[in-house]
Amino acid sequence: MTSVKKIQVTFDCAEPERVARFWCEVLGYVVPPPPEGFATWDDFGHSLPPERQGAGFVCHDPAGVGPRLYFQRVPEGKVVKNRVHLDVRVAVGLVGEERVAALEAECARLVAFGAVRVRLLRADGFDESCLVMQDVEGNEFCLD
């Protein structure tokens, strides 16, 4: 039996490069170099048929630990709550007000890149506090 070693997380979106660059800021990810023979991703994009230009964009963890993220253009907009979302672990091991302060600090940083703060979910005796947010296209994620 083989076990999976690497995964890719795919986002449906309207503007793949914009959303990818937002997540690069959130996670410290980078955009890989363009394919061989192209100086820039724009050069590569212009080599594609018009309907494929801007249809996808990629970023990855420079340390090679986290999953690759792929952003693909789809015609329909986001209508309902995500069925899957990312938890960005920024306050691991922190509790109480120290945890909330760490969540709020990261929230402020991400709002500067276009994220939207939705609501703080306070600790309830079972789960610690987390902060619900949306990315630049309204996809939910949590600061945890």
Spell out the key features of this protein.
2 domains, 3 helices, 3-stranded mixed β-sheet, 144 residues, 4-stranded mixed β-sheet, alpha/beta
Describe this entry's structure for a reader:
This protein has 144 residues and is α/β, with parallel strands linked by helices. It folds into two domains: 66 residues, no CATH class; 58 residues, no CATH class. Helix content is 24%, strand content 24%. The protein is elongated and about 55 Å long. The relative contact order is 0.20.
Write down the Rg. Answer: 17 Å
Please identify the oligomeric state.
single chain
Arithmetic mean of pLDDT: 91
Helical proportion, percent range = 10-25%
Order of helices and strands: EHHEEEHEEE
Number of domains: 2
Number of alpha- plus pi-helical segments: 3
Low-confidence stretches: none
Give the percentage of residues in beta strands. 15-25%
Give a count of the beta strands, DSSP E runs of length 2 or more: 7
Query: What global shape is seen?
Result: elongated
Distance between the termini: 33 Å
Strand arrangement within the widest β-sheet reads 4-7-6-5
Largest sheet: 4 strands, mixed
Class computed from helices, strands and strand pairing: alpha/beta
